[in-house]
Predict the 3D structure of the following.
Amino acid sequence: MKDPFTNTTQIRVRYGETDQMGYCYYGNYAQYFEVGRVEALRSLGMSYKALEEQGVMLPVSEFTVKYLAPAFYDDLLTVKTTITEIKAARIYFNYELINEKGNVISKAETTLVFVDKATMRPRHAPENFIALFEQL
Amino acid sequence: MKDPFTNTTQIRVRYGETDQMGYCYYGNYAQYFEVGRVEALRSLGMSYKALEEQGVMLPVSEFTVKYLAPAFYDDLLTVKTTITEIKAARIYFNYELINEKGNVISKAETTLVFVDKATMRPRHAPENFIALFEQL
Amino acid sequence: MKDPFTNTTQIRVRYGETDQMGYCYYGNYAQYFEVGRVEALRSLGMSYKALEEQGVMLPVSEFTVKYLAPAFYDDLLTVKTTITEIKAARIYFNYELINEKGNVISKAETTLVFVDKATMRPRHAPENFIALFEQL
Amino acid sequence: MKDPFTNTTQIRVRYGETDQMGYCYYGNYAQYFEVGRVEALRSLGMSYKALEEQGVMLPVSEFTVKYLAPAFYDDLLTVKTTITEIKAARIYFNYELINEKGNVISKAETTLVFVDKATMRPRHAPENFIALFEQL
């Protein structure tokens, strides 16, 4: 992978995702970044759903997020997702969350681990997965 | 079952469960009632977790809830759960949500269906489940 | 309002919205129907966000939902929302959730109450709100 | 504050918090840590609710979490919360999540900022807040 692959998708903040401060609750960002990475994979022709059906799970092992400015109810946010690296059993993503004014309101990183559903042990990324990224 | 079985458990409203109205979001009550029925079953010596491990799932097929007064952040709510009937493949629960002032702030009902995990078809309640309720 | 107003919008089931049965958790439908009614109002030129900024809140007072068939991870669902009635301080919505095969997997109804933010008392629907519906 | 203050509280994983992997969804940990810090403050006689009523909000500005092993449905988890530092407008917490076997399954850190509700600007921690911590 020469250049990291980047994809953008949009999410609108739901009422039930706000809290009584009037902010999007900090715990809900994890779902937004998950949507970001699933759509990034889909744009490459990889379905996360199909990956699981192949017997490979991809749990998150590490998650870091900075909240630079609040997101509010009904904001239409852009999730910018970058696949930064695939190495052995791990895949690394970076994220930016951008509001309608164009401000980056959050930055985040996740590490996910390829896990064999049968053995529940870490395993290498599936070959079709690696092949796809090598083409990029 | 002569008299319906009733159990109470307590739940504290989390910050992330509030919305920007300052109310506990209406969608979060479903989790509270689920905790209510799981604890009602546990108090009878029935573990919902064990039920699933036996190959029986119990999805909700119908849910009705009335919101009489709001629940607020940090409120310590009492969930009063009544098992009203078990019939063939169905189990019926009623719920009341009571706040610290003793006011009933919500009433709800759910219907759940016993489903065989292998066939994904409705099935009768497991025998140990029925036996337990007959004792009541 | 001669004919009830109907609007459709789409929602994709997120991974975090599934449960260990592999179904979309029954409590998450409340959010989907909320998105349905917000988008129905938006399609009429009514912003729920603006309504709150005018000092009017719209909490749910009653919610009934039937789960006819499960929704699964990554399903692209159509939420079909109908405004059935506006009367005094109340607005009534009906919903259908339709999966990619065209099956209606859920039907629901909600009653919402117009509440004055300052007094926290029920109030009539705002005039611009009623006027808009009378045009339909 | 000579020694950092530590408090423990317990949380049971709800069905709606699991995902189709059968794990507690990674995004739900944020709520658990929030409960941890709210209960840590309560054990010191500080109510987060009262803090907001005084006009001070405490949004999260940074959150890092490591998922060392999964949490499962119905697990009774211990949240061990440590207040590591209060400095100017910021308060720092560390967390450990421990399962029933005594294994540390997650470690996390958050930074929160004291914000004046009226001006929406960062401000110093309230005096009663600082005084309390100086006693520790």
User: Anything to note?
Assistant: Residues 54 and 128 of chain C are 11 Å apart (CA to CA). Chain C has a mean pLDDT of 94. The first helix of chain C runs from residue 29 to 43.
